[in-house]
Specification:
Length: about 350
């Protein structure tokens, strides 16, 4: 069998040699006390890049989102977001259990909401029963197909939030992928939101970790909640050392992942016409609609796995693939050959 090509997620990358060396040599201390110099350096760097006052290094993107919700939404109050966002989909149970958030999901176009939709959702309820504490956007929007949020759109949504006095949060798990397409800087997006997060462990290629960003007061409260949630992770500098390299080197190469995703989409579109529009693959996420092929998504996943390619399901009738640092253009052509063999089998 051919070598395994793992397209399940951009989280599957292994640390580079440079990362492993930096991890082995990392200066560390107890992060509970704020004593880990490598964690502190990473937090300072993240604050600097985003142009915000402070940052907090956390184990996962989910924990960033959950801490932000806990800090900004009262139990039984609403958070408004696009209905297929990670924060109200995969994390629905976490948000319910940890904070008691009620979500109002708005349907977007490829994951994007308009400022008008948001403004309407923020219109006060005459009976004061439905209180919205937060609006959350996702950039790039994963389920929407890796769609970057245009900066102007975020500005308009931020304006609608300001008019209603409601904070805006950005799940920027893949915000650097968005920046590589829109040409905006991460600080441009960060300037529009009350708080945001980004993941080091996705396209940037670190083995672990995400950054929660905001003003000092918010991060102070986030740090309290981090400890409340049990994430005082002591000598985390061992991981932060790899995070620093990811932050330094990761953003420049994301356009390569986007080019690989485009080749993948074009190849599958040729094999299965109508299953994917390559023009609608702006970043590193490719959804293939297999509903017209007479085979289910799990069946495709099984056949592709037998041919050496690992994929996941992207909802009913959809196969999901993500490109990342550890798949080459050669691997992408191999993956397309596997699709052809799977189709013929
Ligand atoms: C948009 C988005 N937000 C948040 C997360 C959560 O990140 P983590 O897997 O680090 O918890 C993911 C994970 O895939 C994601 O795609």
């Amino acid at each position: 069998m051919t070598a395994l090509i793992d397209l399940r997620s951009d989280t599957v990358t292994r640390p580079t040699e440079a990362m492993r060396k930096a991890m082995a040599a990392a200066e560390v201390g107890d992060d509970w006390y704020g004593d880990d110099p490598t964690v502190n350096r990473l937090q300072e760097k993240a604050a600097e890049i985003t142009g915000r006052q402070a940052a907090l290094y956390l184990p996962t993107g989910t924990m960033c989102n959950q801490i932000a919700l806990h800090a900004l939404v009262r139990a039984g109050h609403f958070a408004v977001c696009e209905s297929s966002a990670h924060i109200c989909g995969v994390e629905l149970h976490s948000s319910a259990a940890l904070t008691g958030v009620a979500f109002r999901g708005l349907s977007g176009v490829r994951g994007l909401l308009s400022a008008e939709q948001v403004a309407e959702a923020l219109t006060p309820d005459a009976a004061d029963v439905t209180v919205v504490d937060l609006v959350a956007i996702e950039n790039s929007h994963q389920r929407g197909g890796g769609t970057p949020q245009p900066l102007e759109r975020v500005r308009a949504i931020a304006k609608a939030c300001q008019a209603a006095g409601v904070p805006l949060y950005m799940d920027g798990a893949r915000v650097f992928n968005a920046c590589a397409v829109t040409g905006a800087k991460v600080a441009d997006y960060a300037a529009e939101v009350s708080a945001m997060m980004f993941c080091l462990s996705k396209g940037l290629g670190a083995p672990i970790g995400s950054m929660l960003i905001g003003d000092s007061e918010f991060i102070r409260e986030a740090r309290r909640i981090k400890i409340l949630f049990g994430a005082a992770w002591r000598q985390a500098g061992i991981m932060a050392a790899a995070g620093l390299i990811a932050l330094e080197e990761g953003p420049q190469r994301l356009h390569e992942d986007h080019a690989k995703a485009r080749i993948l989409a074009e190849g599958v579109a040729e094999l299965l016409p109508g299953s994917v529009d390559p023009d609608a693959v702006p970043t590193n996420i490719v959804f293939i609609d297999v509903s017209g092929t007479g085979r289910s998504a799990p069946e495709w996943a099984k056949r592709l796995a037998a041919e050496g390619v690992r994929v996941t399901m992207g909802g009913p009738g959809r196969v999901r693939m993500l490109t990342h640092r550890d798949v080459s253009i050669v691997d992408i052509h191999e993956a397309l050959a596997a699709w052809r063999r799977a189709a013929a089998s």
